[in-house]
Amino acid sequence: xxxxxxxxxxxxxxxxxxxxxxxxxxxxxxxxxxxxxxxxxxxxxxxxxxxxxxxxxxxxxxxxxxxxxxxxxxxxxxxxxxxxxxxxxxxxxxxxxxxxxxxxxxxxxxxxxxxxxxxxxxxxxxxxxxxxxxxxxxxxxxxxxxxxxxx
Length: 151
Known about the structure:
- With 151 residues, the protein is an alpha+beta fold.
- Helix content is 19%, strand content 37%.
- Strands 1, 2, 3, 4, 5 and 6 form a six-stranded antiparallel β-sheet that branches.
């Protein structure tokens, strides 16, 4: 069976810390896949906020997550703190990708927990249809992108 491999950018423009809570733990005793997706969502919201946007307001359009891929690397447990780094790239006419590197610190070393990618599409909620990336938003995203959006 083929496995998902997510090529990550060499550098990330934004990082945030997200604690692992008891509600993030599944019956296997570690962070569940649904909880990890929620943590990625949290990091995305914080990243967008850092550049002056929300998922519903980005220069007159909103965002919809069109797809997601997660490559799980290691377990994470209650009480640990995760460092989630975010980078934008692969800009297209109506969307772009966000890349996520989720790490924890173990014995003084950063250990990968997961790599992820979300395909984000611009959406006009009042017209209920896909919209082009506004030029000003594209500039903000490119400025926040490592290597100015070049993958």
